[in-house]
Amino acid sequence: MREEASEMSEDEEAGGAKERWAPDLGGGGGGGGSVVPFSDRVLEIVLENVLQFLTSRRDRNAASLVCRSWYRAEAQTRRDLFIGNCYAVAPRRATERFRGVRSIVLKGKPRFADFSLVPYGWGAHFSPWLFAMAPVYPWLERICLKRMTIADDDLSRIAHSFPLFKDLTLICCDGFSTVGLAIIADKCRHLRVLDLIEDYLEDEDDDEVVDWISRFPETTTSLESLVFDCVAGAFNFEALEALVARSPGLRRLR
User: Fold this and answer.
1) For the ranges 1-5, 182-186, 199-203, 228-232, which has the lowest average pLDDT?
2) How confident is the model at residue 222 (pLDDT cuts 50, 70, 90)?
3) Residues spanned by CATH 1.20.1280 within the chain?
4) In 3-state terms, what secondary structure has residue 106?
5) Helix (H, G, I), strand (E, B) or coil at 158
6) How many Cβ atoms sit within 10 Å of the Cβ of residue 100?
7) Strand, coil or helix: what is 164?
8) Are the C-beta atoms of residues 110 and 102 closer than 8 Å to each other?
9) CA 124, CA 87: separation in Å to the nearest integer?
């Protein structure tokens, strides 16, 4: 009897083990409840509880290295893009990863270019970046370039590609002239900042110089900062006075 009882108990345990419920992790048609993928949970946590507090580039770069889900989520939520060397990454690769950028800072030539140690035409052209950015970033608002070569055609493309463009800062840049500045002043109706700092404008004859200051809208403007002391030659002082009068938010003029 004891042997029979022991055999029955073993059969019952074996049968019980067979009937135990197990979750359907494969997403099949079994009766088990569906399990939310771990990657989706991580993405939700990152988007709602972490990334909204990350404004530092260093913190965001560190977050993107955690796992693939964090990598994708960080790229989707990044609005400010900083590239310290325009040759460090291909423009297309950058625009494919970061799709929601509103502001971009791009540096080109090395620092010793400030001491005329880089030959003319060395490179660091903004055109390849602009052609990659224009169809991907329709809501781009700010461009800051340092030691880059930007042509008048590039300025024209900026004015026509980004309807909400607000901020153009060029530091130690070259390749453009008053023709491009006139297009920016005329077409960028939401412009707040136009800072030209230690730039090298193309040489123009007197009959080629454009009165770009008079191209700003004749209505009230949104200008907050206007720096153009590197622009050689005379300018229309009366147009500048009228522009200042139409710009109640202007805080810096140089």
Assistant:
1) 1-5
2) very high
3) 37-78
4) strand
5) helix
6) 13
7) coil
8) no
9) 8
Which tokens go with 106? 């791009």
CATH 3.80.10.10 domain extents, the chain: 79-254
CATH topology of domain 79-254: 3.80.10
Among residues 134, 54, 147, the alpha carbon closest in space to that of 95 is found at 134
Gap between the Cα atoms of 57 and 59, Å rounded: 5
User: Is domain 37-78 in CATH 2.60.40, yes or no?
Assistant: no
**Residue/partner pairs of 85-94 with CB below 8 Å, 24 or more apart:** 86/124, 86/129, 86/148, 87/123, 87/124, 91/128, 91/129, 91/131, 91/132, 91/133, 92/132, 94/132
Residue 1: band (very low, low, confident or very high) from pLDDT cuts 50, 70, 90 = very low
**Which token pair is 33?**
């409840």
For 130-187, write each residue's pLDDT tens digit.
999 999 999 999 999 999 999 999 999 999 999 999 999 999 999 999 999 999 999 9
Look at 70 and 139; give whichever has higher pLDDT. 139
Query: Under 8 Å CB-to-CB from 189, ≥6 apart: which residues?
Result: 217
- Amino acid of residue 39: S
Q: Judge contact between 118 and 109, C-beta under 8 A.
A: yes
Higher pLDDT, 4 or 125: 125
